[in-house]
Every structure is written in structure tokens, then in C-alpha cells.
Amino acid sequence: MRLSTAKTMRPRMTLTQAETLAPPRARDRRATARRAHFWLTLLLLCTCAISLETGASGVSLLSALRSGVAGEAPFQSIILWEVRLPRVLLGVLVGAALAVSGAVMQGLFRNPLADPGIVGVSAGAGLGAVTAIVLGGLVPIGLRDSLGIYLVPLAAFLGGWASVLLLYGVATRSGRTSVATMLLAGIALGALSGAVSGLLIHAADDQQLRDLTFWGLGSLAGATWTKVAVATPIIAVAVIGATLLGRSLNGLAFGEATALHLGIPVQRVKNLAILTVAAATGGAVAVSGGIGFIGIVVPHLLRLATGPDHGPLLVNCALLGASLLLGADIISRLIIAPAELPIGIVTAVLGAPVFLWILLRRRGLMDL
Amino acid sequence: MLRADKVSVDIGRMRILSEIDATAAPGAVTAIVGPNGSGKTTLLRALTGEIAARGNLTLDGVRISPRNAAALAVRRGVLPQASHLAFPFTVLEVVRIGHRAGRFAGRPDLPLHALDRVGLRHMADRFYQDLSGGEQQRVQLARVMAQIWEPVGQDGPNWLFLDEPVSSLDIGQQLAIMRLARDFATRGGGVVTVMHDLNLTAMFADSVMVLHNGKVAATGTPRDVLTSAILSRVYDCNLQVSTPPPHGIAYILPQASNGTAAP
């Protein structure tokens, strides 16, 4: 990422010397970031097509279309329309949500290591979802009926929201965020949420256990049109909301005081960012359980490639996050076919080394 | 006009500033000096609306408070003492963030001009984190200047609020940056700056406010305020201020102090 060594080593010079040299070529990452919108969209379309093509049954897109035209073999179209398409759409939604919530959280906490999965926000959202399934009977019947299938994602959103609020409160003092406090508080928060979730699952009856399996833990395997319908509004709102935060998060990178002096309504931006993270994480967790590391790998790779400007970064995160999750899903379906590997294993194998790499590069900053 | 009436700041149970009355006029450099812990930075943070303060604070009639952040951002820029940056922005990208917040976003060449003014144009593509402390300070000044480029805007003067702008610079850079501030004021803008260096203050300020234990100990022109009696009392050590004939600018040599505490 550094410029050439020769340039870095260039001795300090006086202004007159600098002026006699050719003016420096402003290596403009803004253009690169905008071009990336196009290439990442293309990548996403290709990944979607491959994902539609891949599966245990050997049905292919072309054969299904052919048989569809010929008006025969509903088997192929059922596989495509009822199994693979919802899975692809859910993968796109969840991948975009995970990457965007990671990027927004990193902007909010001014730290590239903040990730809903690592600092316990996903666990908090998971606790919300499990609570809704196991203790959902305690919700007044009228409210439960009007919420319907949205009860679980709503509870996941509330769980995630409470977690981010708590974490921000603990880790941030007078506008400065302590990295160590954030990570350690996140570990505690995640462990606590996980423990309570475990307790609730232990207390669940057979029907509730079936519901828990239906909502899935760390998997896209149970994708259905219902889940797509449930996840679409909440994740779409979160992703669109996030892309509006770009400029404000850039200002926030200088700290809350400077952001204020740049004319950014800091308090409102923080509230919006927290809601966005909670909605995206809650939506993703409600339909797929916690899938780790997408939120940390995708923003980090994109910052290396196109710079940290949150404007284009958040859009690119949504695109690359969706592609990466679909890719991981394809690998998890192929590697031990016809069985499936949990997708969390694939993302962890890809993501954990990247996390360690960031940690090593920034060791100096971590000694707080 | 910057007006502060009876501004008090408490942090916890500690009273940091008590009933400060202050004014600063556009077209002038107003310096805030005082010993460590006298409340200089706190006063600047109150004057920029960064921390809650009791009392009345207005900048050209606009009430200074976080709720007016957007209205204030196009009229005044604030340079903090040190800026830690969370993500790998380049120097030019840092300046652009200031540029976009101001009223001059329609002039895309401006960030490079701002870097020129602080002598760092050749570092535009370097990463901010790789720069020395002094260079980072100058980049931040360029960011503020790209936000508030013209000293006078369509609805009155613009302002720069600087917190020890030359604290980590060498003497050549100190003079260059102070001349920038001076120039901004001469062309009609307002400059309010916290200063540590009394000699630079004497040289560049039009008006000086001396803080001591959270109160205003003296205020006026450098010649009236930077006197042996006032400085010796405030800094709690015997200081000898001299004024050479040609310009009559006060200077303070540490060698001239006899090392004993003020009477």
C-alpha cells in the first residue's frame, strides 16, 4: 500500500525545490473506487449465476430453461425456484448486510477491528432471535399475530441494538474510543449473550427446537422465500441508510470534536449508525444465524484497494460482501458434496488470518 | 465578532473556567496564553461549541452550540492540538474532507493550493499516518484552510480557531504558519489561537488574553499585557520582558529570569 520506497525516502526539501519539480501526480483513488462499483456489480452477477448453477441435484440453469420452454419436468424448475434462487437471494442480502454493518461499525468506533461478529453484536442479535422463539409465547397474542414472521427479526434487531448501545457506552469516553476496552467488552458481551442463548435453547420444547433449526444457525441452507421476504425490507433499509452515512463517517474518522467542526450532526449520525448496524446485523442473524468475518474482511480489502472514503466504500462493501458470501456458500456446498460444510467454517478460514494480519500491522495502536 | 459573556465550564466537580468575558474582532489575531492547566484549551473548546459551557457565546450573532454545527462549519474552521486518524487516508484525502465541508467545494483545485500554503504539496499522495507530528499538524491546518478558504465570506468575516498551531514545528515552520494566520487576519478574517510561545505571541498577536487558574488575568495589546509583572505573577517565576527599540516588540529570554519564584 505504500508508495515506492524512493518517494518515501525522499529527503525533506524546501518549497522552491519542490516547485521546480513536476507537480505530483495526484493518485486519485476516487476514480478507482467508482470503477470498482462496476466491476463488483459484474462479479456479483457472475457469482449469482454460478451459485444458481451449483448444487447437489445437478440441475443447470440452461437445462431448466430448456425444459421450462418445453413445458416439461417441473422438477428442475422446483429445484431452481424453490431451492436455489431463494438461497442466492438470501446470500446476497446477508452478505451485503454483514459487510456493510462491519464497515459502519468500524467507522462508528473509528477502528478497523470492530465487527459485529467479533464484538458480540451478532451474539446479542442471536440472543434476541432465540428469546423470541423460546419465550415468544409470553408476547401478547394480538401483538404476536400482527408481527407474524417478523417477530424473530425484530427481536434480533432489538438484541443487536442493545448490544451496540451498551458497547459504545462502555468503550467511548468523551468522544474517544478505547480499542482494548471495546474488544474486551465485546468478548464479555458475546460470551454472556451466547450463554443465555444456550440456556434458552436448553429450555426449548420440540416445536421451538424445530423453529430454531428453521431460522438456522450459521447457514444459508434453510433458505426459503419466507426468509427472503422477511430479510429484504430490514436489510434493504439498513444498506440504503448506510450508504447515506458515507460523508459523515469520513468526518467521524477525525474524532467527534472535529466531525462537529466539519458541520456534521454528530449525535444524529451516531444514532443512525448504531441503528443501521443493529438492523443489518439483526436481519442477517435472524435468517442465517451468525456468519463471521465477512464484516471485517470485506471493508479491509476494499480500503486497501480503493481507499477509506466511506462514500464509495459502503456501496462497494455491499457488492463485495454479497459476492464473497455467495462464493463461500458455493465452496461449502462443493467441498464435501453431496453433504454441506457449515458456511461459518469457510468464512472463518478465509477471515481469521485477515483479522490477525490487521492486528499485527497495527500492534502499536493496540497497546492501550 | 466573537463574544463570550460569563462563560463557565465545570468538569466533574472541578471548575475549569469561571465567568470568562472575552471578545475577539475580525481582522485581528487574538491569542490566548497562560501556564499549563490554566484553561486555555478548555476555553477554546468552549468558544467552538465543542464542550458545554454556561454563559452566552455568539459568533457574528450565531449562537455557538452543537446544534448549529452546520451553520458554523461554513464560517469557521477549528484546528485541534493533535489529530489521530483511524483509517489510512492520504494527505490529499484528508484536506479534501475539510474542503467538502466548506463553501468552496466548487473549486476542485483548492485542496492542492491549501497544501501549497503549508509547504506540503509534494506530500499529497503520502499516507497521513506516515508523516511526522509536525507535518501532520500542517496537513490539518491545510484541511482547515480548505474548509475556510476566504477570510471574508458573503455574510461577513470567516474565522480560524487554532489550538497551539505551532507546538510541534521547527522555528522556520513556526514563522511560516504564524504568517499564514496573520495574513488571514490582515485580509479581514478572524483568528483566535491558543499559544504557548510568548515571543511568537508578542510578534503576531493583536490582542492577548492571559488566563490564570481559569480566570482572565489580563487582556489587551501584547505591549500592555506581556509585561514582567503580569507574566512573573502568572507563570510563578521571575521573568524579564525586554523591548528592543526598532519595532518595540516584547521578547522574553529565559536566560534573563533569575530562577527564583515571583514575590
TrEMBL record, chain A:
SUPFAM superfamilies with a match to the protein in the record: ABC transporter involved in vitamin B12 uptake, BtuC (SSF81345)
GO cellular component, one term: plasma membrane
Pfam family membership, one: FecCD
Residue intervals passing through the bilayer: 88-109, 121-143, 149-171, 183-204, 224-245, 272-301, 313-331, 343-360
Primary localization class, coarse: membrane
Membrane disposition: Multi-pass membrane protein
Record-given protein name: Iron complex transport system permease protein
Family: Belongs to the binding-protein-dependent transport system permease family. FecCD subfamily.
Keyword Kinase: no
Entry's localization field: Cell membrane
GO biological process annotation, one example: siderophore-iron import into cell
MF (Gene Ontology): transmembrane transporter activity
Keywords: Cell membrane, Membrane, Transmembrane, Transmembrane helix, Transport
PANTHER family named in the record: ABC TRANSPORTER PERMEASE PROTEIN MJ0876-RELATED, FERRIC ENTEROBACTIN TRANSPORT SYSTEM PERMEASE PROTEIN
Domain of life: Bacteria
Record's signal peptide: none
UniProtKB/TrEMBL annotation, chain B:
PROSITE patterns named in the record: ABC_TRANSPORTER_1 (PS00211), ABC_TRANSPORTER_2 (PS50893)
Entries under InterPro entries matching the protein: AAA+_ATPase, ABC_transporter-like_ATP-bd, ABC_transporter-like_CS, P-loop_NTPase
Keyword Transport: yes
Family matches, as CDD domains: ABC_Iron-Siderophores_B12_Hemin
A GO term, aspect molecular function: ATP binding
Gene3D superfamilies associated with the record: P-loop containing nucleotide triphosphate hydrolases
One Pfam family matching this protein: ABC_tran
SUPFAM superfamilies on file: P-loop containing nucleoside triphosphate hydrolases
Limits of the ABC transporter domain: 2-238
Sequence intervals crossing the membrane: none
Keyword annotations of the record: ATP-binding, Nucleotide-binding, Translocase, Transport
Its job: Part of the ABC transporter complex HmuTUV involved in hemin import. Responsible for energy coupling to the transport system.
Protein name from the UniProt record: Iron complex transport system ATP-binding protein
Organism: Roseovarius azorensis
